[in-house]
C-alpha cells in the first residue's frame, strides 16, 4: 500500500476518469469533423447533383497511379 489513506486510490482514479471523459469528448468531436470533411469531399468529387455515386469516376480514381 502506498498510503495509509483509505480513499487514496479513489482520490487518484476519479480525476483520471474525468480527464478521460474530456479527452473522449474532444476525440469524438474531432472525429466527427473529419468524417464530415471526407464525406463532403466524396460528395463533391464522386457524386452527381442528385447524390448518386459516379462509379466510373470513382473506379478510375481508385485504379489510377498516385
Describe this structure in words.
There is one protein chain. With 66 residues, the protein is mainly α. The protein has helices at 8-46, 55-63. The chain contains two helices and no strands.
Task: Please summarize what this structure is.
The protein is mainly alpha-helical and 66 residues long. The protein has one domain. The chain has helices spanning 8-46, 55-63.
What percentage of residues falls in helices of 4 or more residues?
A: over 70%
Please report the number of helical segments. 2
Radius of gyration: 24 Å
How would you characterize the largest beta sheet? none
Total domain count: 1
The unreliable regions are none
Shape: rod-shaped
* Chain-averaged pLDDT: 91
N-to-C order of helices and strands: HH
β-strand number? 0
Amino- and carboxy-terminal Cα gap: 58 Å
Strand content: under 5%
Q: Strand pairing plus helix content: what structural class?
A: mainly alpha
Chain-wise SSE layout:
Blueprint: H1 8-46, H2 55-63
What attributes characterize this protein structure?
single chain, 66 residues, mainly alpha, 2 helices, 73% helix
